[in-house]
Design a protein that fits this description.
Helix 11 runs antiparallel to helix 12. It is elongated and about 110 Å long. By secondary structure, the protein is α+β, with helices and mostly antiparallel strands. It has a 6-stranded mixed barrel. Strands 2-3 form a two-stranded antiparallel sheet.
């Protein structure tokens, strides 16, 4: 231990003579470690956030949208609409496919909302069946949910999201009050619990739910719906159910072979996979940048160590002459190069943790610390120092003590 401490003191003295180069070498390792730590932590945060969002949307959920969705990289957009998806399609799915335990048809359109002098210009109004809130994992905070009688009798009642309720009523209790949706007076019967944004970034708290029949007859005067939310019996049944739904709807919509579907069946795991793919690309880019930084840091350490070996030829020769063995010299220079890289690595890990927590807070992601990411970052920083110290060590043991004494 005394020998290691002595070697470190000698190393610090030698490195102090090349402060700028030492600082650049430390910076190279620092940025490499910083990149690895941030990428590892944010990757875990995004995975956790996505899992939370999927649970928020509903358990074992398969969604059928009218029209076609197209994927452009990580983004998915609706490029065509259809008027063929109906409430009866949902009934057929529930009656024909045992893996579907619940089906909740829904329509959506933005309308202006008014309560006294408070006006909201465009709020998403959802026409839903009574089981919609259960399928989508919404809970009632105050009042009541929509009932079968509300839907059957086309009652003009509404359940508000908490953000909409606050904008319209402030601190006043909205339950029992009447609002105007477009020009239609509707009685507020309940408020949902806050859920935040969904997986697409839409605010789930800033919307209104009304009975589906009321929505179709009073507000849109149409027979088709925008989507069907289907709950599968289990997570394992989702893939089969997805294919069965597509086959059933193609038959019901009389779509011939070779023609495009007029609907899109989405499994939330598909959305999760898209997010993971996007994060995978970011991870690859981050790790590539980290590798480049480690390479620059290792080259800086190599440069400094070669200078140090040349400067300390006399010291090395004398040590060899008084009995120092070759592996002592190798160990000395590997310790010195590792000291530089580990210093940069430890600072990078600390900065990476702080930066990850700050980024997660800004983005609203759950804060996580990836232990495997920290271990990998530290190992990479130590390895870069060891590899960079091999050549200078070999060069140091090639110094002949006799030549040094003669000179």
């Amino acid at each position: 231990m005394k020998r290691i401490i002595l070697n470190l003191k000698i190393a610090l003295g030698a490195l102090g003579n090349y402060r700028l180069r030492t600082a650049l070498a430390v910076l190279g390792v620092f940025f490499g470690t910083l990149s690895l730590v941030i990428v590892g932590n944010l990757s875990d945060s995004l995975s956790l956030k996505t899992a939370q969002e999927i649970d928020n949307l509903g358990k074992n959920l398969v969604i059928v949208f009218s029209g076609q969705f197209h994927q452009h990289g990580p983004r998915t957009s609706l490029t065509s609409r259809s008027t063929t998806l109906t409430r009866e399609d949902g009934t057929a799915i529930l009656d024909s496919l045992p893996a579907a335990t619940q089906v909740a048809p829904a329509g959506m359109k933005a309308f202006p909302i008014r309560y006294r002098n408070s006006v909201l210009k465009a709020i998403a109004v959802n026409g839903v069946t009574p089981n919609f809130l259960e399928v989508r994992n919404f809970e009632i905070a105050e009042g009541n949910s929509i009932t079968d009688d509300d839907d059957k009798n086309q009652r003009k009642v509404a359940v508000l999201g908490p953000a909409t309720a606050e904008k319209l009523f402030g601190k006043e209790n909205p339950v029992g009050k009447t609002i105007l949706i477009w020009r239609v007076p509707c009685l507020v019967i309940g408020i949902t619990i806050a859920k935040g944004s969904d997986i697409a970034g839409n605010d789930q708290d800033n919307q209104i739910f009304i009975p589906l029949k009321t929505f179709l007859r009073t507000f849109t005067n149409q027979d088709y719906v925008n989507s069907l939310y289907i709950q599968a019996a289990s997570g394992n049944a989702i893939a089969t159910l997805q294919a069965d739904i597509a086959a059933l709807l193609r038959m019901r919509h009389r779509i011939k072979e070779g023609f495009k579907d007029d609907f899109t069946v989405v499994d939330l795991k598909d959305v999760n996979a898209l997010k993971n793919d996007a994060m995978g690309m970011i991870t690859i880019l981050g790790r590539t940048a980290a590798a480049a930084s480690f390479l620059i840091g290792a080259l800086g350490i190599l440069s400094i160590m070669i200078l140090i070996v040349n400067e300390r030829r006399i010291e090395i020769g004398i040590r060899r002459a008084v009995g120092a063995r070759r592996h002592d010299i190798i160990l000395q220079f590997l310790l010195e190069s590792s000291f530089i890289s580990v210093t940069g690595g430890l600072i990078g890990i600390l900065a990476g943790i702080l930066a990850s927590l700050a980024i997660a807070r800004i983005l609203g992601y759950p804060a996580t610390i990836s232990v495997p990411g920290l271990i990998l970052s530290f190992a990479a920083s130590a390895l870069s120092g060891i590899l960079a110290g091999i050549y200078p060590s070999v060069k140091a043991i090639q110094i002949n003590p006799v030549d040094i004494i003669r000179s």
